[in-house]
Amino acid sequence: MTLGPLLIGIYVFVLAGFVGFEMITKVPPTLHTPLMSGANAISGITVVGAVAAATTGAPTVANILGVLAIVTATINVVGGFLVTDRMLRMFGKKKKPKALKPGAESVAAQGREAVSK
Amino acid sequence: MSQEIMRSTVVPIIYLVSTVLFIFGIKQLSKVKTARRGNALAAVGMLLAIIGALLELGTVDYRWIAGGMVLGTVIGATFAIRVQMTAMPEMVALFNGFGGIASALVAGSVYWDTVVQRAPAGTVYEALGTDEAITVMLSILIGGITFTGSLIALFKLQGKLKKGQPILLPARHYITFGLLFGSFVFGGLAVAATASDSVVWVLALAAVSLILGILLTIPIGGADMPVVVSLLNSYSGVAASMAGFVIGNPLLIIAGAMVGAAGLILTQIMCVAMNRSLLNVLVGGFGVADGAGGGGSDEYTSVTSCGPEEAAMILENAESVIIVPGYGLAVAQAQHAVRELADMLKARGTKVTYGIHPVAGRMPGHMNVLLAEADVPYEELLEMDVINSEFKNTDVVIILGANDVVNPAAMKDPSSPIAGMPILNAHEARSVFVVKRSLSPGYAGIKNELFEYDNTMMVFGDAKKVLQGLIAEVKDL
User: What is the layout of strands, in order, in the sheet containing B396-400?
Assistant: First the structure.
């Protein structure tokens, strides 16, 4: 049996899909949004295809489409990983003894005003 | 090292390492302790993949590539850093749309370069190869749907477009199926046409895919947007995978397929939480009154309301308090205020926990992220299955901007649109405070009979203002 490139691709596609399924079945709901966001950043992998599509300096249609693909895919990748990290940073925070955040003290003060109004 | 060894050995090994990093990354993202490291690992995998792709190119004109990457990085980083924590779901939808259109653009670029610019004699499938020709069309179709679908989801999450209500066109199912059928026809014609004739069919396919993305999303109500975004996330993975087939890159195929599967399973989990089938969500129109509006009238007759003063007096004597956050908490940015109130109550010896419904807010885990931002201890956030047996032994429940997820009609009224949806049994507590701006319905668009219960008191107002009032009152006790 010899597999052509398309069949190898399909094998890889199906098996990678199962890997994805197996990994996601065991996630606490807390992490669903960060996970969705992180997975979304990984789908920006299409940037790898995009760089191959913008290799000449000439402003041809193909090249412009390629550059647009690079821009959009890079937004997806950079934004996706950064936003995910921002969300996760909050879970990582240890219960520090610091009493209140700087703004928190004023919450009560504002509340007093709100009530006295 | 020769370029040949680079392409045949070094680059594939880099891609393999990057694949492994993605797998470890997603794996670690699924545990609270390691999630941040997992995200970093996946980012390193992505960096390696890009380095591999540049090495694979060899000596080319890098100026456009560099320009595109710098521009994308600046835009992406600006969005990511400046966005409010409460707008995270919108951000995920937006980035997802960009990922989808990128895959379509890659396919479009390969098509344009190979078929239109080189203008070979013969058909498109001869020029590209049959496999590539088909996957180019699939990439354009799925990428286009993902792009406009994500943008519509973004607008709906922002409450634009008829305030997120479903938009139902007449005969929409026929239109959608007609367009989907049309897209296959156009794609098929493009594959079989000669190089010069195919352009019009490819453009038609691109146009139809963009329209499809809009039509598939507008009939779905704002409350179901998390499901839609998750599904579109899955689509963008599949689109990346198709782009991988086009350029013959296994890294794209693997990463795309993993994201595709991950998005699908996450979508399924969300549907289960709402007790609805995926098909039921996608057909749309949920929350639009179909005439059989669940028996009772939509008017509220016996609602009791009170101010922060009375609420604080009841809180004073409470031994246990459960806080049920919802989207209203996010809108009011009240996460810090709620933490402060909880701290004060705890200092008085009251037991405070949070009941988190799986679909509270606009994304699964939305409330967790928000409360984590305000340093609420992780172990105080209890999931529905854990906390539901606690309500009947609880003195006070404070519902902050949540509505449908505490509506007892889901259990009691089989004709209700949300019948069967699992809810938080907040009504079983001794006293229930509902902090809400008005009696307006939630995203399901129906009346909440909890508001009329004898043990319920409405505290009207913006969640943050009410909490500030409560904090001030509790301080004075």
Answer: B381-383, B351-356, B320-325, B396-400, B431-436, B456-460
- Chain A contact for B87, CB < 8 A? no
Contact A66 B106 (CB under 8 A): yes
pLDDT, one tens digit per residue, over B216-244 is 888 887 767 778 888 899 999 999 999 99
Q: Which residues 6+ apart lie within 8 Å of A85 measured at CB?
A: B36, B39, B40
| Nearest chain A CA: its distance from B163 CA (Å) | 23
Q: Mean pLDDT, to the nearest integer, of B343-350?
A: 88
Binary contact (B262, A77; C-beta < 8 A) = no
Nearest to A49 among B22, B247, B377 (CB): B247
The answer to whether the beta carbons of residues B395 and B318 sit under 8 Å apart is yes
How far is CA B380 from its chain centroid? 25
pLDDT tens track of chain A, all 117 residues?
777 888 889 999 999 999 988 877 666 767 778 888 999 999 999 999 999 888 777 788 889 999 999 999 999 999 999 999 988 887 765 444 444 444 444 444 444 444 444
Assigned domain for A72 exists: yes
List pLDDT tens digits, range B176-201: 889 999 999 999 999 998 888 899 99
Residue A101 within any structural domain of the chain? no
Burial of B175 per CB tally in 10 Å (0-12, 13-18, 19+): middle
CB contact B407 to A (< 8 Å): no
C-alpha separations of B421 from B60, B271, B306 in Å: 57, 10, 29
Identify whether A80 is part of a domain: yes
Are A107 and B69 within 8 A, CB to CB? no
In this structure, the number of other CB atoms found within 10 A of the CB of residue B207 comes to 15
List of chain B residues whose C-beta atoms are within 8 Å of the C-beta of residue A43: 96, 99, 233, 236-237, 239-240, 255-256, 259
Range of the domain at A68: 8-93
B373: contact with A, CB 8 A cutoff: yes
- Percent of chain B's residues with pLDDT above 90: 33
Q: Where are the domains of chain B?
A: 1-82, 85-283, 308-476
Whether A78 and B72 lie within 8 Å, measured CB to CB: yes
Nearest CB to A82: which of B23, B52, B81? B81
Which runs of consecutive H residues, i.e. helices, occur in B83-129?
88-111, 124-128
How far is the first Cα of chain B from the last one, in angstroms, to the nearest whole number? 77
pLDDT at B452: 84
Query: pLDDT-derived band of residue B167, with 50, 70 and 90 as boundaries?
Result: confident
CATH topology of domain B308-476: Rossmann fold (3.40.50)
Whether A3 has its CB under 8 Å from any CB of chain B: the answer is no
Is there a domain that residue A55 lies in?
yes
Report yes or no: B26 and B38 within 8 Å, Cβ to Cβ: yes
The pair of three-digit structure tokens given for residue B22, joined into one six-digit string:
């993605």
Q: What Rg, from alpha-carbon coordinates, does chain A have?
A: 23
This model's pTM is above 0.80? no
- Residue-wise DSSP of B350-376: -EEEEEE-TT-TTSTTHHHHHHHHTT-
What domain count does chain A have?
A: 1
Q: Which residue has the tokens 């709901």?
A: A29
